[in-house]
């Protein structure tokens, strides 16, 4: 295959030093897994999270407890607070001598952003600006932040590529994520702050977000409850397993670029129909579906081009959708005291032979 050359790429600090990483939103799904990985390899981690009630606060506290129990308090600090709080952020940067920022705190979720855009602008735009200002002032070595596949809006491309100019968001959430990219670019330009934005494509896995489809489907089908299917089932999404996302994120933290955005996805889509049948298989029950029209703000299909992340970060999604869902269902069963089905116990070999990528 031909290698694309990305213009304007400049590696400014390929450091291998032990890092002090500020993980914002580190009580959340992706943040707690990322903090776990960084702590495991010996970095220090400071988490700031306001523990908001967008979904279960108990789950967020459990995520913090998980890392504290596993790694102890020596290299791990949790600060409960709002990323928009200027004096708190200043205090964190100066007290802990933060070297790298992994900014994952945000109001996430497309549909709720239509009902309450103000809170999205507060956390996502104001919060990001506050962190960028502190990071520039304290001259951190790298500022990595979560963007989203939703910035591709109504793109008609088969594979969403970072080279496409995207300025047509279709939800307030997507607009705030695009704003984060624009602000990061500005700070990298004005203050030489290395910034990398990561456009995550629907992330799922252990301790996954209860407001997202992968968790909801497993939960509803397990309980025999009615579940909502938006559209005819032909819509397709690129689902990315959590360990692949964490690996890509850490690779980005380790490789400061002047300014870059990367897609972090699996690089292939799964239709809603196939998705539901995989979950039915692992749960061992049929779904009770209620079919509704597509929702405003939703995009019909997402699929990441992962070429740029592969070339510049050495990123590669390793976990198949079937195997990722098997682990997700196993985690759900464990947490709810349920027995694993035969399909779950049989493992990946069996899953792969059924022809799902
Ligand atoms: P999450 O909701 O589990 O985690 C976000 C955390 O940020 C939460 O614990 C929340 O309490 C915290 N937070 C929100 N506003 C805050 C504020 N003002 N101050 C301090 N803490 C605040 O979400 P996640 O799935 O782990 O997502 C992490 C990041 O990745 C987010 O920026 C999200 O937009 C982005 N993202 C996620 C996905 C996905 O599929 N999960 C896809 C694309 C982008």
TrEMBL record:
Source organism per UniProt: Triparma strigata
Record-given protein name: NAD(P)-binding domain-containing protein
Similarity field: Belongs to the NAD(P)-dependent epimerase/dehydratase family.
Parent-protein residues present: 51 to 407 of 422
NAD is among the record's keywords: yes
The NAD(P)-binding domain, residue ranges: 22-328
Keyword Nucleus tagged: no
Keywords (A to Z) from UniProt: NAD
Transmembrane segments: none
